[in-house]
Amino acid sequence: MTTGIDQPSSGPATSAGRAAEESAARPRRAGSAPGQGRWTPYLFLAPYLVLFTLFALAPTIYGFWISLHDWDFTLPGKPFVGLSNYADLFSSTSVNGPTFWQSMRATGIFTLFSVPLLLVVPLAVALLMNQRFPGRNFFRAVYFAPYVLGVAVVTVLWRYLLDNNVGLVNYYLGLVGLGPYPFTTALPWAWVAMVGMTVWWTLGFNAVIYLAGLQDIPRELYEAAKVDGAGAWARFRNVTLPGLRPILLFVISTTILASANMFGQAYIMTQGAPGNATRTAIYYIADEGLKRFQMGAASAMSFVLTLFLAVVSLAVFFVFRQKEA
Q1: Residue 97 predicted with pLDDT over 70
Q2: Which pLDDT band, with edges at 50, 70 and 90, does 304 fall under?
Q3: Domains located in the chain, CATH noted
Q4: How much is the average pLDDT of 254-267?
Q5: Global pTM?
Q6: Could you give the angle at the alpha carbon of 58 between the alpha carbons of 286 and 314, nearest 5°?
Q7: How far is CA 146 from its chain centroid?
Q8: Quick one: which of 189, 206, 195 has its CA closest to 155?
């Protein structure tokens, strides 16, 4: 019998409506206001941003301000000279220009010879250390151990080993009729000494980075390559190198930057000798700013060197991006 009153439906629509009404009637919990948590990531970033501003961004801005002045911190007057310090670096008649570019040339020579060795030798070490053999962990520690030493310790050690008169290297070379060589006083032996010492000292770091990348490459890829009949070189070229592409980008970038900022080896081992042939850009900037108190010119040199390193880094990223494409 029909009463004329619509009976409520017990279907899904009614259940959904009741759930919506109960949700609307339920009091909103604290902290659930829209957009209230959008500042949370910035709170976590705040410590880093504060430290970055205090110790990186602010000194950079202040250094650029100094480069626009004739800044001698031993004198009260620091006149504004605009871009004159930068113009002097590109003038062949200025005091700092030719000397600065000579130091840039020395930096380029060191980087040119050290970077390829620091890419190839650590990779070979990492490939060897990635194999299974007795004492593998011991040899890993031996190769990495020199890197934990400071540059002063390593350079003083090698300066005595390579000394022309009392060095053990020249002593043993003399026993077999191959020496002595002026490792710290003449070219090209000074470059051989500094590059060789730097490779021995820092190859452990790159080798560890390579080793971590090698262990992330799936073993199934090597097994599939073997099934397809690929030899050792084919597996290295088609499996290892592509798998190490991100690692190679990191290693190349950091190695170039570290080599271009070389200071301690030249300062302690050769003192820039012979003449100023091994005085690198960082060495000359330190001399100009801290010995001659010409902080304005030194700051300008620092920004020019930074610009060159930025261009080189961008070129490396561009090359790897093109290869990936």
Answers
A1: yes
A2: very high
A3: 107-286 (1.10.3720.10)
A4: 94
A5: 0.83
A6: 75
A7: 18
A8: 195
Which of 161, 195, 193, 184 minimizes the C-alpha distance to 271?
A: 184
* Among 256, 227, 250, 212, CA closest to 107: 256
Compute the mean pLDDT over every residue in the chain, rounded to the nearest whole number: 87
Percentage of the chain with pLDDT > 70? Answer: 88
CA 124 to chain CA centroid, nearest Å:
20
State pLDDT tens for residues 137-149: 888 889 899 999 9
CA distance 280 to 12: 79
Amino acid type, 51? L
| d(C-alpha 125, C-alpha 208), whole Å | 9
* Better-scored residue on pLDDT, 8 or 240: 240
CB-based contact 238:225 (threshold 8 Å): yes
- Measured CA to CA, the distance from residue 240 to residue 221 in angstroms comes to 9
> Quick one: pLDDT at residue 36?
60
Helix axes 295-324, 97-129, angle to 10 degrees: 40
Q: DSSP labels for 208-221?
A: HHHHHHHHTS-HHH
pLDDT of residue 179: 73
- Dihedral over alpha carbons 152, 156, 158, 164 (to 10 degrees): 150
On the CB side of 165, CA atoms within 13 Å amount to 0
Greatest extent of the chain over all pairs of C-alpha atoms, in Å = 124
Torsion of CA 66, 71, 76, 78, to 10 degrees: -70
Token duo for residue 274: 């012979």
Reported as a pLDDT band with limits 50, 70 and 90, residue 45 is: very high
Please choose, from the candidates 260, 262, 288, 257, the residue with its C-alpha nearest in 3D space to the C-alpha of residue 201.
262
d(Cα 187, Cα 7) in Å, to the nearest integer? 103
Residue type, position 219, single letter: R
Q: Which tokens belong to 72?
A: 């001698």
